[in-house]
Specification:
Helices cover about 15% and strands about 35% of the residues. Helix 2 packs across helix 4. The chain is mainly β. The C terminus is likely disordered. The chain starts with 5 loop residues before the first helix and ends in a 5-residue tail after the last helix. The chain has seven helices and 25 strands. It is globular. This is F-box domain-containing protein. It comes from Papaver nudicaule (Iceland poppy).
Amino acid sequence: MEIVSREKTKKRMAEQLPMDLETEILCRLPIKNLTVFKCVSKSWNRLISHVCIPRITADVCILNLYRLHRKIVPELCDACCLSDKMPELNYRGSIPKDRDNKACYREIDCCNGLSLYMDEDICRYILVSRSTNQYFDIPEPLEGVKETFTALAFDPVQSNDYKIVLPLHHLDSPCLDIFSSDIGKWVRHIVPGDWVKHLLVVDYDITYYKEIKWARKTVYLDGMLYMLTLEKHLVLFDLKSLVVSAQVIKVPCQTGICRAGVIGQIRSVLYYVNYNEEYKLSVWQFDYHNASGSFWILKHCISVDDMLSENQAILHTMKLNHQARPCRLFEPYGIHPLLDIIYIALQGRVYSYHLESHKCELVWQIDRCLDWREAFVYAFSYSYVNVKDFRMEDHATKSTRDVKLENVSD
């Protein structure tokens, strides 16, 4: 007679559970515990990664509020989670103190759940994934990064690799220094074109100083890095090809009354939000391969007066002069990555506006006052994909000098 242990019985029972019941049970667990159970088996890893976590986090959105540090480099100054499903995550956590007590790292960018920190004094970066508790010290860049804009590129749907992109304009030829976790080193790519004059320029003013014409966050989709400039141009970098290329495209709403607007993605489609000449919030979809020849398709046109008339419950949250209500009341501040929602700001408050139901709600009241020139909101959802550890490869032992000698020049 075969003696069956309790552990074997439990294993057999688990294997006999219907898939939908197994999914339902796992989805009731705290998300931190759920990520630990990915190591139980390959089938559980697939089920948790591709079914359970996307289901649990489908409506979870984190808002990061950035301001321009010294009016040049973005810096995270506040964060808010618009769900109670993930209270155990620290959305504003700092770099562990035992890493380098002398360093002062600031979060300067985030992309699909990854955060990029920089210490401008020692010209170093640290990459952080809060959901998987991964920390990576990035090798020293080829050039100093003090007060220079840097972008993070990560798409967990495509790969667990990530890139750090550093545009440089002060060299003989315009180029991008790109760190890739796939090869574990920085590589210099010369990128011809007029993108430099749109993106990187030194400009002094009595009241305002800017080193870059970039504004309102970058977006990374399907190997393309999109940057919106303050002068209403979209700079595209093709990072998926061996030879990196750039293109500059005008965005809609080019009238003088409009500011830069904001870009973001909804379900892997790029959108641009800004006011048109009639002071209506316009939502444009970007279609690179549009047969009509235009890159932009107008999807929504929103009257602020109509918005307030349909959502009078939010009027008590505002300090308005009803006798002379301004046409341009809200500033576009962000786009929800999964739902048809845009975020607009007024008087230190952030509101969500659903593009289909036309419902507007106050979702975040910030202690500090928002300034359109020096702050923006980046909305994102966390990824629970373990990012690639470039330190496990042989190339991680190469020195910075070795990396510099292997730069790509064309």
